[in-house]
Design goal:
The chain has 367 residues and is of the alpha/beta class. The protein contains 15 helices and eleven strands. Strands 3-2-1-4-5-6-11 form a seven-stranded parallel sheet, sandwiched between helices. Strands 7-8 form a two-stranded antiparallel ribbon. It has a two-stranded antiparallel ribbon with strand order 9-10.
Amino acid sequence: MSPGGAATPHERAAASVATHPAPVKMVLDCDTGVDDTLAILYAALHPAVDLLGVGSVWGNVDLETATRNCLHTVHLAGRPDVPVARGADRPLLQTDAVFAYHVHGDDGQGNAGTGRVVGEPVAGSAAEQMVRLAGAHPGEVEIVAVGPLTNVALALGLCPELPSLVRGITIMGGAALAPGNVTEVAEANIWCDPDAAAAVFQAAWTVTMVGLDVTMLTTLDDGHRARLAAGGTLGRYVAGILDHYIGYFAAASFGERRSCMHDALAVAVAAGTLVPEVAPLVRAYVSTEGRTRGQTVCDLRGMYMGYPEQEGARCQPVLRTDPAFADEVVDLLVAAGDAALPVTPVDGPPAPAASAAGPASSSQEHA
């Protein structure tokens, strides 16, 4: 219960979940656009997640916008206790960052954000926070990265033993059997920084890869938006930011008004609230050169034999999940009731930093 005696969005949402796995300590790394906002809300509200910290990274939007949106989202959920750390503002080895304002809006909130600036990022980088929290809870922390993997690669550089300190790592990114969404073979989060992704895939841990194979099949539509809008102010806010996002996917991917959920799936798989139906343990690597740059190459040759054991396998691509998971996310957000912040726009919202941060957008989708 909040100090004033009223239940918080987190408390209301948690009370709506009848049963759940034991809470998983989680560090979330986000390039906070629209789908990242849903992922943060899910992690901040669900009782199966003990959200220790959030890191921002460039990707869907520039770093300053992503950081502002991370802070705004944890405050919306009534979780100002969750520290937000600023991360990388560009790829690991490249100089130019490419953003996806055309997908997520100039504010990263479907051009429907409140414009409120709330809270401050903590001292230290997102990579440093990741290492610090893993060291404080050895063997317990799940890293969930749903943007470019720049911060995770930097954390590995700071602490090469990080894989032995964490419970595991789950990413939203890549594609095993599905086509790419930037090139024919490359998914956006991996394509944005394939050198960082290659380092993460080469490290001595098992990467759970929640990629386009499942995220393109778990969608939100205007029926979901109507349910959200009929709830409290938190649901109404999410319904508002989804309008532009759904419109993009209607034109670019589906030919009808629905959008991918993307990032929340990775949080749920990591938390055990969404159990994959097919997720073999296989060898995988990230292509960093040529026309296949950004492709996640997974050795699925054993699929016709039930995926027999592979020597050196350290990647679990999630190949099938229940698409009805979208309804569970909507139910949680509706149960949360009113947001902990006003959701009406303030006068003179801060201008997006796109013009000063590099190319405003490209033809690709960012997830």
